[in-house]
Amino acid sequence: MSEQRPTLAVWKFASCDGCQLTLLDCEDELLTLAGEVRIAHFLEASDAAAPGPYDVSLVEGSITTPDDAERIRHIREVSGTLITIGACATAGGVQALRNFADVAEFASLVYADPRYVATLETSTPISAHVRVDFELQGCPIDRRQLLEVLSAFLMGRKPNVPRHPVCFECKRRGNVCVMVAHGTPCLGPITHAGCGAICPAYGRGCYGCFGPSPNWSGARPNTRGLLPWLDMTPDETERVLSTFNVAAFREDERGLRRPDTRGADHDTPE
Which residues form the NADH:ubiquinone oxidoreductase-like 20kDa subunit domain (predicted)? Predict the structure, then answer.
């Protein structure tokens, strides 16, 4: 960190801006945060864009174009700490549905002349391209977790963000398990906590907006083990896994693993 107020930058890639809006929705806490850091680049809130380097960068959105891939490498170079926020930045987002289809066909249906559309065949998380210091999941992220992560990095400590699944949040709220009691399909056992178990609290199953939750050993959840308990047809199962974190859940379903960037450095392509 610099001797003066540390600098904070917020960046957008392919996304809906919802995670950036979560930062703005912090309201009173944002005023306190603004007193502790100098917001040097945040185009969602201001047209001021001071040049780097930056002490902390928050990155929303996935990498979907060649320009994106080049720009994220530059952001990594000028950022002391890089934190990805939201399902798009941590798992490729709902736009990662393209990873399992024909992108050229999509482009031909949407654009009159797709020859001028520069896009990648996949939508990938930031960690697939550069080293990430911390990932904050959710669609959108939880503002309390965001404030905890920012406070932790500003204070030079490890963020205290839970690694347990949504089922723990259900127990804390006193929710009746919708899957056991009513047979409602629910992804809570394999979904990362952070939402406060909103959906099960109102009688519907969790649909995984916070992405896969690691188990106690740090491995990805047993998605394939849960699927038979959902009592769904293959088409229904595919749909329930094909939302905000489609690439991450389908990786788990197939028994694949991707690096855990929740606070631990790891080597990724620069």
Answer: 16-152
